[in-house]
Amino acid sequence: MRIARFSIDGNVAFGVVEDGPSAQDGPVIDIIKGHPFAEFERSGRTVPLSEVRLLPPVLPNKIVAIGRNYAEHAAELGNEVPDVPVAFFKPSTSVVGPGDPIVYPSFSQEVHHEAELAVVIGRMCKEVPRERVKDVILGYTCANDVTARDVQKREKQWARAKGFDTSCPLGPWVETGIDPADISAGLGIGCTVNGQQRQLGRTSEMVRPIEDLIVHITEAMTLLPGDVVLTGTPAGVGPLSVGDEVAVTIEGIGTLTNKVIKRG
């Protein structure tokens, strides 16, 4: 099931994205009653996907990101894979949705794309045992961990380099039909810039699987419904320039597209 958050006629709602009555109609959204973090009902009232504005699929309280979880990516930046997962935060104000602009920060001259699989938490959880990880996940979406690489290298903390406004595009929706075992088996994950392939990998290349990451994070902190865990990026990260269109595609989920603009 693909659950989208969207706006139409000034109203914001959640809905299930599905095929229209015919191929000519295109996808539609069946508006749901309530929200996806509890039992909900479909209203049966549909709107064409083409007539809505897709929003970030969730508004997380926090985004917990994992660095250097793909060995080839760690190597391309001259780093080794750490002995334990390296976690950092991106603030809620960094989140934008599909089609929203990535605003090039004024304090950087080297901004990079990082295609990532994002885990969306479905229920409040703490100290989750490995065998229960599946139970706390609502689903998965695409993410771009946009990074001011020069600032990351210059400053010991990554807060500004990875936490600036618009540095965490999410979307286009949450796919609930993926099992952590599917991630370990390997979903294709890639990134294009202006249609040119930059990153191309598989989630099976993760050093540590989803289960290990959730166990590690929840040993220390409570995750809330709608919180997001970023799982690392494959090799091939590279620079973005004003005017670029960057697209993150993950097999079985969809494509998240954003354009880079100059701060006004």
Automatic annotation (TrEMBL):
Top-level lineage group: Bacteria
Catalytic class of the enzyme: hydrolase
Record-annotated Fumarylacetoacetase-like C-terminal domain positions: 62-260
PANTHER family: ACYLPYRUVASE (PTHR11820), ACYLPYRUVASE FAHD1, MITOCHONDRIAL (PTHR11820:SF7)
EC number: 3.7.-.-
Ranges of residues in domain Rv2993c-like N-terminal: 1-57
UniProt name for this protein: Fumarylacetoacetate hydrolase family protein
Keywords: Hydrolase, Metal-binding
InterPro entries: Fumarylacetoacetase-like_C (IPR011234), Fumarylacetoacetase_C_sf (IPR036663), Rv2993c-like_N (IPR018833)
An example Gene Ontology molecular-function term: hydrolase activity
